[in-house]
Amino acid sequence: MQSRIASLASLSIVVSIAASAACAPCFAWGDDGHKIVATIGTAMLTEDAQKALRDILGDETVADAAVWADKMRSDPQYTWIAPLHYINVPRNATSLDMARDGNGGVQVVSSIIKYRDILKDTSKPKEERRLALRLLIHFVGDLHQPFHVSYKEDLGGNKLSVQSFGKKSNMHKVWDSELIRRRLNDTKGGWATMSADLRQSITPEQLKKWTASGDPAVWANEAFSITRLLYRDAPDARTGVDDAYFQRWQPTLNECLKVGGVRLGTLLNDALAPGSAKAAKDAKAAKDAKSGKPAKDSKQQAPKDQAPKEQAPRDQAPASTPTAPKSGNTAPKQSGAPE
Q1: Is the confidence at residue 333, as pLDDT, over 60?
Q2: Residue 39, helix vs strand vs coil
Q3: Three-state secondary-structure class, residue 162
């Protein structure tokens, strides 16, 4: 009898895990997107924060840490991570409400806060802080992929089928990886060069704007405003996602990656070496004042796997307060796409 009860209990756990997985959307950004966000962010680290990061990661690269959470998706001991990649918002909502949408803390917004605090606590074992660092790098990237602040009914765009550059796909996958892959077709050097291009195009004004709030709930609301635009401006049902769609939304895609990277860097500086960013900036300003040079934003040395610096053309970026890209005609809505 006890054996039968144990078997039924095991079956219940398996069914529960399977049901949870079925309700979860794809993991955000492809490998390229996560590596881009991570290396933009870690290029901003102060010397003290870099040392702390290398001590925690050891020989693991930042790029590998950024995609660790996705690589573990098939490991049964990490199934608990699946619902932490996203947050669901009601279909008729115009903004995120954590009191309504918080799901008992089991979502990406609360997870960023939780793992930031663990990373910041130097009394925690290094292995626990390493896990927190991997998840934090990944989840900040997730939160800046718009379809990870979306609707449960279509699994964050996974059920929105669409032709993408001539192949069957869905809107979540389009924004995870296919638009980035299209951009990489025009970029020699792969994701590392794209990361450097985007980082070089960030202006001091954008840095100030994007770091004005350190609240992940504010970031999620910005992502959701983009999500709503993406549903309204669904691809033409006949042509699907094509070069015209890519050109229309590329500035938004670029800015999502850049904003995610900048905020990740700010968050990691605070968690790994509190006060070091301000101290470095003050020291640079004092040195410039003494030498008579105008103050400039300091450039920190990048971790070992940071993309090489290359000057890139400036991107037009509508993210933090997004507006729909301008086009000659409004694209017909995709069949079945929500209003």
Answers
A1: no
A2: helix
A3: strand
SS3 171: helix
* 72, two tokens: 């573990």
Average pLDDT, integer, range 56-74: 96
Residues 110-146: tens digit of each pLDDT:
999 999 999 999 999 999 999 999 999 999 999 999 9
Name the burial class of residue 316, with classes exposed (0-12), middle (13-18) and buried (19+) by CB atoms within 10 angstroms of its CB: exposed
Q: How many residues are listed for the chain in this entry?
A: 339
Measure the CA–CA gap between 132 and 329, rounded to whole angstroms: 46
Give me the DSSP letters along 217-264.
HHHHHHHHHHHHHHHHTPPPTTT-B-HHHHHHHHHHHHHHHHHHHHHH
| End-to-end CA separation in angstroms for the chain | 53
Query: Residue 236's pLDDT is what?
Result: 85
pLDDT tens-place string over residues 162-176: 999 999 999 999 999
Compute the radius of gyration of the chain from its Cα atoms: 21
Give me the residue spans of the domains in the chain. 24-290
Q: Determine the distance from the C-alpha atom of residue 60 to the mean position of all C-alpha atoms in its chain, rounded to a whole number.
A: 20
pTM above 0.85, yes or no: no
* Long-range contacts from 273-277, C-beta under 8 angstroms, 24+ separation: 273/46, 273/48, 273/49, 273/51, 273/52, 274/120, 276/46, 276/47, 276/48, 276/49, 277/46, 277/49
């792969």: which residue's tokens? 190
Domain 24-290 bears CATH identifier 1.10.575.10: yes
Residues paired with 170 in a beta bridge: 161
Alpha helices in the chain (DSSP H): 2-23, 31-42, 47-57, 62-71, 98-101, 108-120, 126-143, 171-173, 179-184, 190-200, 204-210, 216-232, 243-272, 276-291
